[in-house]
Write a structure and sequence with these properties.
mainly alpha; three-stranded antiparallel beta sheet; two-stranded antiparallel sheet; 7% strand; binds benzoyl coenzyme A
Length: 482
Amino acid sequence: MNLMNVDYSTKIPNNVGLTEDRQVLKALEGWHPGYLDWWNDMGPEGFQESLVYLRTAVSVDPKGWAKFDYVRMPEYRWGVLLAPQDPDRKVNFGQHLGEKAWQEVPGEYRAMLRRLVVIQGDTEPASVEQQRHLGKTAPSLYDMRNLFQVNVEEGRHLWAMVYLLQKYFGRDGREEADDLLRRRSGDADSPRMLGAFNEATPDWLSFFMFTYFTDRDGKMQLESLAQSGFDPLSRTCRFMLTEEAHHMFVGETGVGRVLQRTCEAMKAAGIEDPNQIEKVRALGVIDLPTVQKKMNLHYSLSLDLFGSEVSTNAANFYNAGLKGRFMETKIEDDHRLTNDTYPVAKLIDGRITMVDEPALTALNMRLRDDYTEDCAKGVERWNKVIEKTGVNFRLELPHTAFHRQIGEFKGIEATPKGVIVNGAEWSRQRDNYLPSKSDGDFIESLMTPVSEPGKYASWISPPRVGIDNKPGDFEYVKIENA
Ligand code: BYC
């Protein structure tokens, strides 16, 4: 079989030779009905019968891996796709540096590796659950289609992790695969594993912030797992990253279009001061300070996804060769880190201080720093959008000590500028830092659906170009086609 192209002859499209791997094929086919039940229960509410113009992966060739067509989402071909194998690939870091990459799970690392795969897998369906109500308030068919594209691909990423569990982890892998369909985002008894994936995504600005900030954590974590010495995990994550890029595009352009629309409306109405919130809101657009507050929320929630700044788990993952650094093979050092240090922001005598820590235990901090740098670039592009309209306002990432539930700063209250304040003061200012109930109510009041092709809600600009170069009035979702 040509591993570049996908075998569609089995129920589960794949490029991993499932036809010859009867046991795994059977296990996956056994899991499939439960997945469909989950998709029907927890996937996009109200649009399961609509025809959606979606891309489906048909190859892992970077030059042409997807095809676009109208599909009903439950009929989407969720497949198992791994980037092509390099027979000479080595373990590129940690104590096994230079050994041949593993094609099977090394017994001593089984539990660690399973945990990494399960945590990654758990986030994928969680995000679909968080976004399930948004179709009903989509600001356009274009945006609705993008939401559903993100959703079906997160579904495929769940398949990717379930394949690894079923193929490489035997019976406990199968149990974990079932549990991935059992947990639910925000459920009191059986929540998703990581904090940010139990938060609500109540409106479209949250969705754009989520795909910008939280999907970008996904990118960083997948990049680190793509370095793994366990080759099947590496190959899986490499292909997932191809799809992930579109998710962050949806977030970046989504927020950019909100800013564009707000600033243009302010200019047209002659409003110079972005803090004249009621006047701006009266134009049917989202005021800039509220966009900043949404950003404060989603960035800080996403920072928590990197775990503690100083972590022996992270050191163990690295030493074992299971999870590397962002761009590991491009970094010039010994790739063992046993004698290196890395500066970590810590709380010492009530002050935020940079302290050199052993580089191995500081790996979460390092990845988080790489993430912050990546986030900041897009924020600058958003500021350019504002600047070009002539409105005087700048968005700014809050300090990493702000609003944290995990790690060094979880026990303190810091302002977005990183000033430590007491709890009472923070509570008094809370609604200036994070979206308040009334901010949420206002945004919700704007969330009226627009479903005429080529038309957009009052609070968002049209995109510059269509998906798959389609014209402006293209019908991305045929809602009534049930
Ligand atoms: N919430 O040493 P620590 C994505 C736990 S997103 C709850 O500080 P570690 C996507 C931790 O499990 C990417 N618990 O951290 C995006 C540990 O528990 P145990 C998903 C948390 O282990 C959008 C304890 O605290 N992939 O793909 O070094 C849409 C101490 O842990 C949290 C991954 O995350 C939290 N936020 O690092 C769709 C990659 N943080 O062991 C998809 C795989 C920590 O004591 N995961 N804990 O019971 C990992 O690499 C690591 O598990 C983490 C944590 C980076 C998450």
